[in-house]
Amino acid sequence: MKDTRSSSRRPASGSPAGSPPASEAPGLAARRAAAEAVLAVLETGHPLEETLDRLTRGLEDRDRALARMIAATTLRRLGSLRALLKTLLERGIPDKARRVEVLILTGAAQILFMDVPDHAAVGTTVTLVGEQAATAGFKGLANAVLRRITREGRTVLPDAADQPEWLVEGWTAAYGPAQGEAISRALAQEAPLDLTARENPAALAEKLGGRLLPTGSIRLVEAGNVTALPGFAEGEWWVQDAAAALPARLLRPAAGMTIADLCAAPGGKTAQLAAAGARVVAVDRSGPRLRRLKANLARLNLSADIVEADATRLNAGPFDGVLIDAPCSATGTIRRHPEVAWTKAPGDIASLADLQTRLLSHAADMVKPGGVLVYSTCSLEPEEGERQVAAFLERRPDFVRDPVTPGEGGIPAEWINAEGEVRTLPTHLPDEDPRFAGLDGFFAARLRRG
To answer: How far apart are CA 399 and CA 177, in angstroms?
Structure first.
């Protein structure tokens, strides 16, 4: 997620993506920004949200939302969309014409998966293909392919996984063929919006017209502008996936406890611990992310001791509890961050697992005798979860598992493995309305020092 080459591209008119000329067709700037964002993710690994924020600067809120939806939908469905192009184009698209491929992919995503008029998806895509001299020769191809998709619809869509093969194979090996396929399909769905209430979640759910989940999180769909929702300015809640809200609760935070939250930014778990009355030491190595954490706590009228440091070298404690929400592959969050599937490689998991091992070993020394260490990752990969904890317990006989029991914190038995660890999957929380279904994939283990 490093290079900025794609952000320097400009349409033939010379106008940046975020500043369309007054005569430009409605929605064209949003679609241009979406395609440029997808291209940046695929070519350079840029984070989608950061890229979209830059490319949509100056657009109206409606166009910003359209760009975000097109880009996210394209990346979420990229596997099947690429398989579709392969069936429709025997010779494929030349490597030098990657921008053309991305534009056709974003057009196809609108036709197949979004509530967008077919003529708008086709017309704007063809216009964008023709904007640059290097791609203008492909206008006829783009028009023909997209018009065929409008005629034949989903009947031409292959039954292909929407994530890279190596990821799906790993999930199949870890969870079985049926569950592996179900995880892949669940990750292709857009995630709902989950909130954590500072207090009284039942009352907040009623106030917002949301659904109170068994774990205490509040689930909304079609929330629109989040900052405009009731209670935002007053600091009554914060955005946090229902699965991400579980690890902090495993510490059973209460007044009188001192808890270290390592890798704390942007602060959702710190806020949970502070709202429960604990004194929190929030640690993160990123200054900019800590500034965001401070701003979030200020809005929520909560406080914590904030420390900018590398958690693998921090000399602190002993603490009643330590929470490590460790850096990881984040494969459990693909619903929310679909670029994750396309910016990770198998070798990344091994290097991240090494960092997690070092974090666990160092954090263990910060826990006082009788204290609790909670380790969590937003990953579906056993190397970053179950296997990491098993290896830690072999190294540290002074720690034992403190098993999570069914019903604790509203956690159902099917989210708890045989070792008493929490393992959520994107297939959990099924619902007849798919907009309300699913969870981020998360792992969490509670360990007690003897």
So the answer is: 34
Task: Please tell me the distance from the alpha carbon of residue 171 to that of residue 163, in angstroms, as a whole number.
Answer: 11
Q: What is the SS3 string spanning 276-313?
A: CCCEEEEEECCHHHHHHHHHHHHHHCCCCEEEECCCCC
Active site residue 378: yes
The pLDDT tens digits of the residues spanning 390-406 come to: 999 999 999 999 999 99
C-alpha distance from residue 172 to each of 75, 175, 180, 183, 414 (Å): 21, 5, 4, 9, 18
Q: How far apart are the first and last CA of the chain?
A: 42
Identified catalytic residue from 100, 205, 263, 378: 378
Give the position of tokens 């800590």. Answer: 290
Question: Is residue 321 left, alpha or beta, with left meaning phi > 0 and alpha meaning psi from -120 to 50?
Answer: beta
- Please give the C-alpha separations between residue 81 and each of 20, 91, 101, 153, 384, in angstroms, as whole numbers: 28, 16, 10, 12, 30
HSE value, Cβ hemisphere, 13 Å, CA-based, for 12 = 11
CB neighbourhood size of 168 (10 A): 20
pLDDT along the chain (450 residues), means of 10: 32 40 77 96 92 93 94 96 91 83 97 94 95 91 94 88 96 97 95 95 94 95 84 95 96 96 94 97 93 94 94 92 96 96 93 95 96 98 97 97 96 97 97 92 97
Residue pLDDT, tens place only, 178-192: 999 999 999 999 999
Q: Is 363 helix (H, G, I), strand (E, B) or coil?
A: helix
The Cα 365–Cα 322 span in angstroms is: 10
